Amino acid sequence: MTTIDFRTQANAMHDELVVRRRDFHQHPELAFEEFRTAGIVAEELNKLGLEVQTGVGKTGVVGILEGAQDGPTVLVRADMDALPILEENAFEYASVVPGKMHACGHDGHTTIALGVAKLLSRHRDQIAGRIKFVFQPAEEIVGGAKAMVADGVLNDPRPDVSLGLHLWNGMPLGRLGVADGPVMAGSSRFTLKIIGKGGHAASPHQSLDPVVCAAHVITALQSIVSRNLNPLDGAVISVTKLDAGTAFNIIPQHVELRGTVRTFKLEVRDLVEQRMREIIQGIASAMGCTSELQIEHDVLPVSNHPDVSERMRGVFQSFVGADGMDTNERTMGSEDVGLFMTDIPGMYFFLGASVPNSDEYYGHHHPRFDFDENALPLGVALMSAAVAEYVLPK
Ligand SMILES: [Zn+2]
Ligand SMILES: [Zn+2]
User: Fold this and answer.
1) What's the pLDDT score for residue 121?
2) What percent of the chain has pLDDT over 70?
3) What single string gives the DSSP state of each residue in 128-195?
4) How far apart are CA 199 and CA 197, in angstroms?
5) CB neighbours (10 Å) of residue 6?
6) Active site includes 87?
7) Where along the chain do its domains lie?
8) Catalytic residue among 34, 87, 107, 139, which?
9) What is the mean pLDDT of the chain?
């Protein structure tokens, strides 16, 4: 069995990866509108001889690279969508579509996954198993993974392991975040209506003021994280939107609040919801108001299977060294990649890609976001080696 030098092969693809990424970057498409991107992806996968399915989860594309022999199925996921942001970068490959921008690096993710497909398709005769490349739409509105799963992306064949990566500007190039357990939070959104009794602002005793009630609720909700949860369990409760009233001299009839809850564990999520209901109901009732709380659990936590991440750290060590990996990199940000890792062991890692020599830091979703394009060949090498660990007999 000849061993494959993933790094050399990926480095040789550097220029074409950059050209492709810049093309995607110039032509960003929002959630479920990734028609051009999906078209390019499908065309490239067809060219490589993969079995291609389009229109999976509306604009998603699936490519199956079948090895010469039977073996496990590895899912590789890349997201394709951009964000509704007016790009402020002045480089020549900046977005040509006003108000749309690849400000999260998904142009890079799509490019890397296509690079992996190309690299591994050259070694089809050595592969025992198959690789299911999943190009997902609509990550930024957390709808794409759900749509693809509903369209059967996890069936026929069902993956034995799911892998994914996110370019990460918070870390320098070459540094990886490969943690065990939860790495991105589950996300729930809530809408709370507090209903009182309106009246003249000068006669509060004749009304039931939902504004004062809302103020107490907002403050008390912050006690859930600090007083009800185990301090070692991370969680966030943020009230982010308030709608109340029409004038300075009117006590309104009701107040509407919106916000988000982020948690790493489902049992923590459920405890937060229970405490929210108790606190809101208790305070509203004490102040003579009533309340209506709606919570939608949008996204599951992304949780790395410890066996998979352990195995991947072994693979990645030869690329970045043991010191190049952070086993604690986590974020309260959310991702719907977790849906491909439910009941399927998986691993989602962060690939450091901050722009070198830049004085100013522009994070993900910033109008001046960019990443170091040297992360593209590195990403191809790492992901190819990760997949090979499962489908290339040693
Ligand atoms: Zn994003
Ligand atoms: Zn992203």
Assistant:
1) 98
2) 99
3) EEEEEEEEES-TTTT-HHHHHHHTTTTSSSPPSEEEEEEEETTS-TT-EE--SEEEE-EEEEEEEEEE
4) 7
5) 24
6) no
7) 6-184+302-391, 186-299
8) 139
9) 96
Nearest residue to 94 via CA among 361, 304, 368: 368
Beta bridge partners of 69: 128
- Residue 166 Cα to ligand 2 midpoint, Å, equals 7
- Confidence band for 3, pLDDT divided at 50, 70 and 90: confident
Is residue 139 flagged as an active site residue? yes
pTM higher than 0.85, yes or no?
Answer: yes
Decide if 13 contacts 380 (C-beta within 8 A). yes
| Residue 17, C-beta contacts closer than 8 angstroms, at least 6 positions apart | 111, 112, 115, 373, 376, 377, 380
Calpha distance 378→305 (Å, rounded): 23
Catalytic residue among 81, 87, 209, 370: 81
Q: How far is the CA of 85 from the centre of ligand 1 (A)?
A: 11
Provide φ and ψ at 100, rounded to 5°: -130, 140
Closest by CA to 348, choosing from 374, 329, 376, 322, is 329
From its phi and psi, is residue 183 left (phi > 0), alpha (psi between -120 and 50) or beta?
A: alpha
In the CATH scheme, what is the homologous superfamily, with its name and number, of domain 6-184+302-391? Zn peptidases (3.40.630.10)
Res 125: pLDDT: 96
Task: Please tell me the CATH code under which domain 186-299 is placed.
Answer: 3.30.70.360
Phi/psi at 196 (nearest 5 deg)?
-120, -140
pLDDT at 2: 57
Query: pLDDT tens, 306-331?
Result: 999 999 999 999 999 999 999 998 99
Q: What is the DSSP letter of 91?
A: S
Q: How far away, in angstroms, is 165 Cα from ligand 2 center?
A: 10
Chain segment 339-367, per-residue pLDDT in tens: 999 999 999 999 999 998 777 889 999 99
Chain CA centroid to CA 357, Å: 27
Q: Is residue 114 within 8 Å of 26, Cβ to Cβ? A: no
Radius of gyration of the chain from its Cα atoms, rounded to whole angstroms: 24
- What is the rounded CA–CA span in Å between residue 377 and residue 385? 12
Return d(Cα 220, Cα 214) in angstroms, integer: 10
Q: How far is the CA of 181 from the centre of ligand 1 (A)?
A: 21
| Neighbour count for residue 82 (Cβ, 10 Å) | 26
